[in-house]
Amino acid sequence: MKRFIAVVVSLVLWSVIGNAQEFEARLNNNEIKIGEQTFIEFECRFSAAESEIMMPALKDTITKFVEIIEVSDIDTTFDEDDISFKIFLQRVTITSWDSGLHVIPPFKVKIGDQTYESEALLLTVNTIQIEAEQDIKDIKTVLEVPFSLWDWILARKWIIAGIFGAIVLLIILILIYKKYSNRPTREEDTFVPKEAADLLANRKLQELEDNKVWQKGNVKEYHSKLSFIVREYIENRFELRALEQTTDEIILLLGGVPEIDKVLKAKLNQLLLLADMAKFAKQQPIAVENEEVLKTAYSFIKKTKLIVVEQEQGSENSETNA
Q: Rounded to 10 degrees, what is the CA torsion of 125, 131, 135, 140?
């Protein structure tokens, strides 16, 4: 008996729920003119416990006389009287280009296992009334478009670009003119003769000697400076790149210089080798060697310096007259 009552109650509940679920399609305006638009509104009320709802599948047209313009998204709300029910709202914008009375067939929606169907709708499409006896009207005048600065610029873009380019070019020319017109008159370059190689070397050797570098314990610095002075003198005097050459390369290059004999070359080689050992091998030359290499440098410069012979004008005239 209890089992029978439970079955009856379940059937009643399902019946109530089934009756509460509804689907309706409403036509906003059932009479339009050709080309005008109206819309169909779908309203589907169903139990919130339902998880499978299938709204009507719509394409480009409903019938061959009724076209779909736009389908809105589904708007979901709860029933204000009973929040256990949800409501789906959807709007379909339609139009028609054929006059007459057009039947819009029922739409179907599936809620769970049940399928619900709306009622058919009627859409009246009227033609535009033309009065045959009415006089022909003139064509409407051309509408004036509001002024647009951007459109004006685009219509004259090449002219504006040319004017702008000309202005920029003019400014550049003016700046160039001002730069060179205000430029002070250049005075003639004064030629300053280069200091003779032997004078420069002797002056630096004297400074090195006066500073007493090796006497202060800076033996490596002393030989480095001495080697640089001698190499610089060779480069200035004989136009050899002595500052970039090794000791062996310098001695080899000086082999063809007639002013340098074998003895002088041997002493120069000894000076440069001792400097290399002091700089790179960290050898500490004794005091006698430090003094001797300085004397060698003075002697080398003295024996190889460039001697310019200046003839007196009187002797030149006498030789010419002779």
A: -10
CATH code where residue 72 lies: 2.60.40.10
Pairing of strands 121-126, 31-33: parallel
**Angstrom distances, CA of residue 109 to CA of 43, 54, 219:** 10, 6, 107
Closest of 276, 270, 273, 269 to residue 220, by C-alpha = 276
**pLDDT per position as a tens digit, 267-313:** 889 989 888 888 887 778 888 888 898 899 899 898 888 887 665 55
Torsion angle of C-alpha atoms 214, 215, 217, 221, degrees rounded to 10: -20
pTM above 0.70, yes or no: no
| Helix or strand run (H / E) with residue 76 | strand 75-78
**Cα gap 130→24, rounded to integer Å:** 38
| Domain range for 109 | 20-126
Structure tokens at 208: 């090195």
